[in-house]
Amino acid sequence: MPVVEEPLELLVERLQGFVEVLLAALPKGKFPLDETASHWAREIAASAKSDVSGMRFAPDQYTLSMHPKDFEALTEADHLSQSKLSEALRLALEHSRYLLSREPHITLATDPMLHRGQLRVIAWHSSDPTEAPPVGEEPANDTPPKGAFFMVEGSRYFPLDRPLINIGRRLDNQLVLEDPHISRRHAQLRARGYRYVLYDLNSTAGTRVNGKQVQEWVLRPGDVVTLGTVQLIYGEDPKGPPEVTPPYSPPFKPEIDRDRVTPLDLTTIELGDNPVPTKELGANPLTARK
Do 198 and 214 form a contact (C-beta atoms < 8 A)? Predict the structure, then answer.
C-alpha cells in the first residue's frame, strides 16, 4: 500500500529533535532551530526516491558544510558523535514515514565562502534504493559495477569505471590524493564479480573501511573508506553521483613534483597562517535549496 506523503511542515517538526542534537555543541542562538530544520527537510524531500509501490526512501548520505570557525567549535564537542547523530536522524525519518536503505551517515566539511552561522547540506543516495538486488550468484568477471563512484570528502565525486584503479599520492595513480599521510601507492580497486574489491598495498598509515583496519574488502554502497586523513564514500547508482557535486580531480603538478608531499586541497582551509584540517565525525552546502 503506497505511503501518503506528509506535508513538509510535519517533516520540519519531526526533524527538530535531530537538529537539537546537531546544534548542541554550538553557542545557543547561533543557528536558528526552525530555519535549520526547514533546510534539512527541503533537502531530504527533494532528494528522496519513490519505488513503483509509492514507498519513499530518504537519502542515506549527507555532507554538512559550515564556516571554518563554526566547524572548529562543533567538532571540538566531546559529546557529538556520528552514531548519536545518525540515530537521531534515523528516528526523525522513520517518524516521517521515510524508509532508509542503510544507516544514515553525516560528513562534516568546511566552506570559507559561508558566513558564520550559515550551513549548507548535500543529501544523496549511495545506491538506488528503488532497484531490486540481482538474483543469485553473479559470475566471476572483471566488469566494474554499474554507476560506481567515490565521493571524496563528501563534496566531489570520482567515477569508478575501470577494472583496476590505483589510489595514492603519485601522479600516475588513477585516483591521486595529495595528503602527507597517504602512501605513493596506497590502495587498489579491482573489479571482481560485478563488485569492487579494495586492497591495501602495504601502506604506511593503513586502510580503514567503516572504521575498521582492512587488507582486503568487498565494497558495498555506503562504505566509508579512510586513507590517511581522506574520507571516500563508495556509491553505486546507474544515474551516477549527485548532480549538485562537482567532479574531483587533483591539481596538475609537473612530473618533477611527482613525489612531493602536499596537503590535500579538499581537506584544508587556510585561515591566515593556520590551516584547519577537515575532521570526520565520530568513530565521514545548510542553505535553502534554490
Answer: yes
Question: For 143-186, what is each residue's pLDDT tens digit?
Answer: 888 899 999 988 889 999 999 999 999 988 999 998 899 999 99
| Residue 66 clears pLDDT 80, i.e. is over it | yes
Q: Which residues have CB under 8 Å from 282's CB, separation 6+?
A: 80, 81, 82, 83, 84, 85
User: Can you tell me the distance from the alpha carbon of 68 to that of 271, in angstroms, rounded to the nearest whole number?
Assistant: 8
C-alpha cell at 115: 558566513
Which segments within the chain are labelled E, that is strand? 49-50, 56-57, 61-66, 105-110, 119-124, 148-152, 156-159, 164-168, 175-176, 187-192, 195-200, 207-209, 212-214, 216-218, 224-227, 230-236, 268-271, 274-277
Helix 33-47 and helix 8-23, axial crossing angle in degrees, nearest 10:
120
Distance CA 119, CA 39 (A): 9
Q: For the whole model, what pTM was predicted?
A: 0.68
Cα gap 208→68, rounded to integer Å: 26
**Sign of dihedral through CA atoms 14, 17, 23, 28?**
positive
